């Protein structure tokens, strides 16, 4: 990163952080101290190359499903896929802990699709914390299930409930949704929880953070006792451990977490040093390597204001936050995924679980509230082995 000095020379913004190059704490600047703590912690553990035990061809799954996997970008399983799929195929309960962006979705979809192929009467419930993640899981399922006549229903808040009730009356094996909407449908008796033999809780830590713990307990309590339960998360809190002890039956614990962020993410800070913050951001965004940029703000109004300002300056930009309708959020997300816009300004609603290919930079324009928020924000870049940059404004 570079900044312009008064005489026109180019000098680097800040310092690049790696395990051997830690930021110095500035006691007079609490913001810098916070980011210093985040970055130091994020790079604290050494990451060793993982050698897969299996290939997708080795797994005991239906050949038609294997063919669909081979048609996608998947070649060799990621660590969480490699370690989890055999246990799920055996019907075991499982707790999977892995960094964000490491393929947790396919780790449970592949063996569960195989489960349906073996028994067409199988019903599977998948819970996700946000509507965006639920929709993304459903899209991934459709890709893997191509030509297999396996159908799903996605039920999320912000979308018309009557349409979801109508969809639930059609033939399907998977129901994917957010806890609040699933609970509403169950209370309306439009969703029979007693028929699900398998349940998946994806990003379980985020569901707890968002206040869904009672909804999760409600849904789990009405599911059959004799079921397969899969927990996937990036962290394992005491609250999650309590739920695991209460609802899971002798689960296999799979943890392939090494460090909190992938080594493919280059973390750095951008010093404002009394300059106009927006101008510093503008100077970054016009640089040639900022191809696909996700900018995080703190408030809905601040995000929308920044998006409008960047648009007025000629940038191709869209925004996503809680004040937007379900349709508006999906259109904004699709325009970013499809490269109609190359900048997306977002609140932390976009920080968890979203798999957007090719994000070159994540910019923390406003500081995240917690270390976990920082990790999940910057985890939107450097995914699937690609190199990404994460910049935090100071």
From TrEMBL:
GO terms for molecular function: ATP binding; hydrolase activity; nucleic acid binding; RNA helicase activity. Residues 1-32 are annotated as: Disordered. The keyword Nucleotide-binding applies. It comes from the Bacteria. One of its GO terms (cellular component) is cytosol. CDD domains: DEADc, SF2_C_DEAD. SMART domains: DEXDc (SM00487), HELICc (SM00490). Keywords: ATP-binding, Helicase, Hydrolase, Nucleotide-binding. SUPFAM superfamilies: P-loop containing nucleoside triphosphate hydrolases (SSF52540). Residues 85-254 form the Helicase ATP-binding domain. Residues 280-394 form the Helicase C-terminal domain. Pfam families: DEAD, Helicase_C. Belongs to the DEAD box helicase family. This is RNA helicase.
């Amino acid at each position: 990163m570079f900044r312009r000095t008064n005489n026109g020379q180019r000098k680097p913004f800040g310092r690049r952080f790696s395990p051997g190059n830690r930021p110095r704490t500035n006691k007079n600047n609490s913001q810098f101290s916070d980011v210093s703590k985040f970055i130091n912690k994020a790079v604290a553990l050494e990451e060793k190359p993982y050698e897969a035990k299996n290939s997708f061809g080795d797994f005991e799954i239906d050949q038609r499903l294997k063919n669909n996997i081979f048609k996608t970008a998947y070649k060799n399983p990621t660590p969480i896929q490699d370690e989890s799929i055999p246990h799920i195929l055996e019907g075991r309960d499982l707790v999977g802990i892995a960094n964000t962006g490491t393929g947790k979705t396919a780790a449970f979809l592949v063996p569960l699709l195989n489960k349906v192929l073996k028994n067409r009467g199988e019903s599977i419930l998948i819970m996700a914390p946000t509507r965006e993640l639920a929709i993304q899981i459903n899209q991934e399922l459709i890709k893997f299930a191509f030509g297999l006549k396996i159908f799903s229903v996605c039920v999320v808040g912000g979308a018309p409930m009557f349409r979801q009730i109508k969809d639930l009356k059609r033939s399907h094996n998977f129901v994917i949704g957010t806890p609040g909407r699933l609970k509403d449908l169950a209370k309306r008796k439009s969703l029979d929880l007693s028929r699900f033999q398998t349940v998946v809780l994806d990003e379980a830590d985020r569901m707890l953070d968002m206040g869904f713990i009672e909804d999760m307990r409600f849904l789990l309590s009405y599911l059959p006792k004799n079921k397969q339960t899969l927990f996937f998360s990036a962290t394992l809190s005491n609250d999650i451990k309590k739920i695991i002890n209460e609802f899971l039956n002798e689960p296999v614990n799979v943890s392939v977490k090494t460090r909190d962020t992938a080594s493919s993410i280059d973390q750095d800070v951008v010093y404002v040093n009394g300059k106009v913050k927006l101008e510093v951001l503008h100077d970054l965004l016009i640089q040639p390597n900022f191809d696909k940029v996700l900018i995080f703000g703190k408030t809905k109004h601040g995000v929308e204001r920044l998006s409008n300002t960047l648009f007025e300056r000629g940038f191709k930009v869209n925004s996503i936050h809680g004040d937007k309708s379900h349709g508006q959020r999906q259109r904004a997300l699709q325009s970013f995924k499809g490269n109609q816009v190359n900048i997306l300004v977002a609140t932390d609603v976009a920080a968890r679980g979203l798999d957007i290919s090719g994000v070159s930079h994540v910019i923390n324009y406003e500081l995240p509230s917690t270390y976990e928020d920082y990790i999940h924000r910057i985890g939107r870049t450097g995914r699937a082995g690609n190199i990404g940059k994460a910049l935090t404004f100071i």
